[in-house]
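Lab notebook: predicted structure, single chain.

Context: the supervisor wants predicted structures on file for every construct in the current expression panel, including those that have not yet been purified. This is the next one on the list. No modifications to the sequence; it matches the entry in the shared construct table.
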Amino acid sequence: MSMINKKTTIAAICGIVLIGGAFAIKAHSDATKAATAQDIDLYETSPITSLDTAKVTDSVSANQLSQVGEGLYRLNADSQPVNALAKKTTISQDGKHYTIDLHQNGKWSNGHAVTAQNFVYSWRRTLNPQSKSEFTYQFANIQNATAIAAGKLSPTKLGVRASGKYQLKITLSKPASYFKRMLASTTYYPLDPAAVQKYGKKYGTSAKTTVYNGPYTMTKWNGTSETWTLAKNPDYRDKRAIKLQHLNYQVIKSTSTAYNLYQAKKLAAVTLSGEQTRQNKHNPDLKTVASGRIGFIQYNEKNPLTANKNLRTAISLSVNREQLAKHVLQNGSTPATTFAVKHMAKNPRTGADFTKDATVAGTADYQPAKARALFKQAQKQLGKSKIAITLICGDDDATKPIAEYLQTTVSKNLKGLTINVKSVPFPSMLSAVSKGNFEANLTSWSMDFADPIQSLQILESTNNSNMGHYKSAAYDQALNTAEGADALTTAARYHDLVTAARTAMTDQAVTPLYDARTSELVNPKIKGVVYNKFNGQADYRTAYVK
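Prediction complete. Output recorded below exactly as produced.
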């Protein structure tokens, strides 16, 4: 999503899902008012970009969509799928055929019933090339999805159909042990055809041009506004489980502003900067939560400078990740050694974490001497004694210190290399990177669920989220085998994924920097929030103010 993919915590996550910048998702509340009103104030560090399932590519928008919409499943605290609109699921022995019976009390905010055909319509629409969705690759396991996305087949040929008003049948081209977890993603949410046809291209661009089937409905969002409200949905199928009446959001980019509001007892939770974490190390309300997010630099390999492997590797080896984690981030984040985060998978034979097996020496360590030697080779290959690279990133408070650290440490270790930081609002950065108008991008990727494929898939040559245009036949083959012949063979698939990760690191497809965590202060008056232990995603369905 996860970049898909789509994370939330009751406090900030200092990074994004898709391609850069830093998001935070934070809950806060006026304690005196919320105790009786069951209203809480929430904030994001970036505006909503869309509520259209085919258009959502960032974690903020996905977080909002997850609260106003509902799919077949949701992920619980252990990142495992549990029923949402799905009532019963039957899977064939070969893992290719899913029959899903739906709850019959799902309803859209316009009064229409949520039916199996709503899922069929939504998925076909996303895969239609006219939608220009960046997440069509998420459907690759479904029969004919790849050909449809490429414009080679009609969307009606997709391996999904309604076999009754409330029964969905899915046929996969290749089985996937994690398919139910994928179906929990907002990309797989249903759509009401009547509403989409009514609003046309405006669907999902404002609160009034969107319909909802989730716990909340949205108001006061005009498409660009930096404040909006989620109100309890009286037509939600499980409305008795919902206790919070209103979730009032605003965009706050400044960590100091958010912290000051918390100190003034106007926030129920806040994600802390490194300095704030130090100040609160003895605070009993301080906690560190997983983010399921990898921070990294991606390079535009269509650019003559950043296409140079020696240059990319030299940059990677000039970064002291221990120093970055301990003295810059200071929030519990740890150095990244490969393009994955911990606790995604374990070696079925040895029990070792995937990140350990996928680490390649000399690709993500701090080796300044080797970095200088590689940089000299890059200078010769490029015919330049002095090289300047622009690093584009988000303009929020959480990202800037990371960018400044990289700018200083890389230039210090690699004489002749200048890193120019270009901090811009997230939408501008997203647009530039999506169009290929960048050299290097400081970004992060959030995982929807615990499986290495969540990060590795975005480096596949045909993936829409492969903004750096990395291309490797060996890498693609390893992933194809993992998702094909070895899909249901645990040990073989694990080996394939390790091979892919090690290939990417050897090629320096990206420069992984940190395995993200967040430090938060949380007002104990907010109860009942269910956190996903892998990625920190918060489920507000059972939350309340004590």
